[in-house]
């Protein structure tokens, strides 16, 4: 069995989609202010739906595994240069950091 898609409710669909495209290489197959579908190289579909408010549980997040610690560090550096707030990567269950994405959800980047 393979997970086919995940839907995230977000406050800003275009900004969330741009973030996921820019930093994680997801491909946007079109959409609008209220809905869009993004695809990865393994066939996962990540849909984004607009809501006025978003309230995820404190520990909720989506994760993007990277091929190396250096790649995690590079993504962290790029995000910080672009104005995102995140604590530096640290050794936990992996070399990892968390960042709040536009639209109101948390993302983990790890290797």
Automatic annotation (TrEMBL):
InterPro entries linked to this entry: Fosfomycin_Res_Enzymes, Glyas_Bleomycin-R_OHBP_Dase, Glyas_Fos-R_dOase_dom, VOC_core
Pfam families, sorted: Glyoxalase
PANTHER family in the record: LYASE, PUTATIVE-RELATED-RELATED (PTHR36113), SLL5075 PROTEIN (PTHR36113:SF3)
Domain VOC: 2-111
Protein known as: Glyoxalase
Coiled coil spans: none
């Amino acid at each position: 069995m393979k997970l086919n898609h995940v839907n995230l409710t977000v406050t800003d669909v275009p900004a969330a989609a741009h973030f996921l495209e820019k930093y994680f290489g997801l491909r946007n197959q079109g959409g609008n202010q209220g809905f869009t579908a993004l695809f990865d190289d393994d066939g996962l579909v990540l849909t984004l739906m607009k809501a006025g408010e978003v309230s995820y549980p404190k520990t909720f997040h989506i994760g993007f595994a990277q091929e190396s610690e250096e790649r995690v560090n590079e993504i962290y550096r790029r995000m910080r240069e672009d104005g995102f707030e995140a604590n530096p990567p640290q050794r936990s269950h992996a070399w990892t950091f968390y960042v709040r994405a536009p639209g109101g959800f948390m993302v983990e980047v790890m290797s």
